[in-house]
Design brief:
By secondary structure, the protein is of the alpha+beta class. The chain folds into two domains: 102 residues, Zincin-like; 38 residues, no CATH class. The protein has four helices and six strands. The N and C termini lie far apart (49 Å).
Length: 150
């Protein structure tokens, strides 16, 4: 697909499905001999838009083009060429809505959960932090209440 518009991408050694990803749609990593690409398993769910999967694959392939491992000017130029040729608007970040992902198919599991004492809002955190160690010190900006670990 990219070959037909003159974009020379790197040697893709492996493409895997990441079943553990919570926030990342995809990842391109440079390894000896080429690149590996990981795609979030949620994008493969039949309920979700195929365009979101295609957009992510093209986004990661763009990273394998010489000088495009970051989201700098070279990467943006490649993304623009892909958009001009195929209509896939490849951006640095996308929301679930942008990807056509139905939120119920996204399985986010948080290691830590907290509830606001005042309004009852529940929030989750995947990693330990100052907040997870001392939630009572933090104020919920929505209502002014304090958090407690559930």
């Amino acid at each position: 697909m990219l070959d037909s518009i003159g974009i020379k991408y790197g040697n893709i050694i492996d493409c895997t499905v990441n079943t553990r990803a919570q926030k990342r749609w995809g990842q391109c990593r440079k390894v000896p001999g080429g690149y590996t690409i990981n795609i979030n398993a949620v994008l493969l769910d039949e309920q979700n838009s195929e365009d979101g999967l295609m957009n992510t694959i093209l986004h990661e392939l763009a990273h394998s083009v010489d000088g495009c491992m970051n989201h700098g000017a070279n990467w943006k130029a490649v993304a623009s060429r892909i958009y001009s040729a195929y209509g896939y608007e490849i951006k640095r970040t996308d929301s679930a809505e942008d990807k056509g992902v139905i939120e119920s198919t996204r399985q986010i599991e948080y290691k830590y959960q907290f509830r606001c004492e005042k309004c009852g809002k529940v929030i989750g955190r995947a990693r330990a932090s100052r907040f997870t160690r001392n939630p009572e010190r933090f104020i919920h900006t929505g209502c002014g209440g304090h958090f407690q670990k559930i």
